[in-house]
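Ops channel
N.P.: pipeline sanity check, posting one input/output pair.
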C-alpha cells in the first residue's frame, strides 16, 4: 500500500505566497515516494543577523532594543542557523528565490499587514 502524500511546510505565509515556497510544496507532492526535503535559502547566519534584519525592516537598530547576556545562553541555543536544501535542488529542481534578508523583510511586512487588518 502506498502511503498518503502529505507535505509539511513550516514557514511564513503571505498574500502572494512567493516566500512560502508553494512551488516546493507542489513539487514534493508530485513525488512517487514520500521523502523529507529541507526548503531553505542554504545561507548560514547568526541569530544576530536575523534580529538585525528584522529591526532594520522597521527602521530600528536592534542594539537599542535588545539586551543579551551570554550567561543566560543554554547549550542548546542556536548561535548560528543553517539548512541544506541540496536534496530539494537535486530531486525537485527547487531553489530559493530570495535570501534571508528578503525573507525577514517579507515576514515583517506580513506581520505589519496582519496587525493593520
Amino acid at each position: 500500500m502506498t502511503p498518503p502524500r502529505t507535505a509539511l511546510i513550516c514557514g511564513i505565509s503571505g498574500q502572494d505566497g512567493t516566500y512560502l515556497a508553494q512551488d516546493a510544496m507542489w513539487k514534493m507532492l508530485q513525488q512517487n515516494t514520500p521523502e523529507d526535503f529541507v526548503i531553505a535559502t542554504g545561507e548560514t547566519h547568526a541569530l544576530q543577523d536575523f534580529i538585525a534584519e528584522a529591526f532594520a525592516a522597521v527602521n530600528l537598530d536592534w542594539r537599542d532594543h535588545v539586551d543579551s547576556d551570554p550567561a543566560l545562553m543554554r547549550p542548546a541555543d542556536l548561535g548560528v542557523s543553517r539548512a541544506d536544501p541540496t536534496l530539494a535542488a537535486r530531486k525537485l529542481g527547487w531553489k530559493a528565490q530570495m535570501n534571508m534578508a528578503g525573507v525577514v523583510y517579507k515576514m515583517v511586512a506580513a506581520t505589519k499587514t496582519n496587525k493593520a487588518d
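N.P.: looks fine end to end. The chain has one domain: 22-116.
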